[in-house]
Write the structure tokens for this entry.
Amino acid sequence: MFDITKDAIDEISLRQRLTNNESCGAFVSFEGWVRRKNEGRQVDYLVYSVYEELARKQGQYIVDQAKQLFSIENALCVHRYGRLEIGDMAVYVAVSAAHRDAAFSACRYIIDEVKKQVPIWKQEYYLDNQDSVWLANSD
Amino acid sequence: MSNITHLDHHGRSRMVDVSQKSATYRVAKARGRVVFPEHVFKEIMSSHGHTAKGSIVEVAKIAGLMAAKNTSNLIPMCHPMLIEKCHLDFSYDELTCSLLIESEVAITHKTGVEMEALTAVSIAALTVYDMTKALSHEIRVSDIVLVHKSGGKHDYHIEKLPEKSQVIDSMRMSQSGETINVNMQYFAQLREWVGKNEEVLTVPMGSTAAQVYYHLKSQYHFSDDIKQFKVAINHNFSDWDAILQPDDCIVFIPPVAGG
């Protein structure tokens, strides 16, 4: 499952979707948070914008790919958009699997590919100045 | 003969002297695929990409990295290179029952890394073959090709994007002919540059996405470098040279920043 949402990510209920599976011996999750400091500047808040149709399609494709590439049971990823404050969760990835190796690998794969491929953009606003910057992921 | 730098003017082979060249940032990307018989592809999918020897992709990735580092030991006239980046991507393609392999190698040095990128793909592909050969003798390695090279005398990119001047000329030339309407949607920086979320654009029939980009670039002062952007048509990633159809929805996608 891949989703994008304007509301705060409810990681507790997302986690529950992957639990209660007798064939799973491992669960790995990743949370991406909004950080105060970026490239030496004090961040005030972030605004994520999204190209919704393509983001949903591409995000689901990545989760499906992860299920094909790794021996995992289930995987999900939710990305938030709109205005986020420092400490807010921007993205959540969760993977369940029989064994931990595949769970770690798939979790890493999903967050890396989401950052590379999904059309979501981040505009950073700062405390020291009124300007804002559109950021780009390195890959 | 003079165009082949690996031959001297007597036609004898040699390693090219790059000692006087200055170092630049160089990137090379290559691509190849391993094509499986359909039943083999299905078997690989049902085992989540694992064979008796382990994960096909993980082993092939390591093999590709090792190969890139060892290129100068394999190809006689290659200079030894201290590779600074080597990345391999694998994706299974159901439509063609194949595993697509893409490599990217980067270095700041005096000579290019296309042989490293091509060697990485080649050896990764052979490793995929080795990992899967117990399943069939009809597995095929194919289409190994350089897709991008930059930082040297001549940059190259396989998606041959039209030159700006040609584009504007061809837009002008076809101006008298039939036109179609397409729907532009703008996001992120582009939305700021354009000052609106969307608009309907009338373009000559037969226009490509790249032509529309260059056309709008002059109007809205988009970046000169189209390669920073991707393009989506009707909510799917597309090629820049795709011919637009009436009422297509077109989105130029600036570098993304999720996560």
About this structure: Strands of chain A lie at 2-5, 26-33, 37-38, 41-50, 72-80, 82-85, 89-97, 120-126, 132-135. Chain A is about 30% helix and 40% strand.
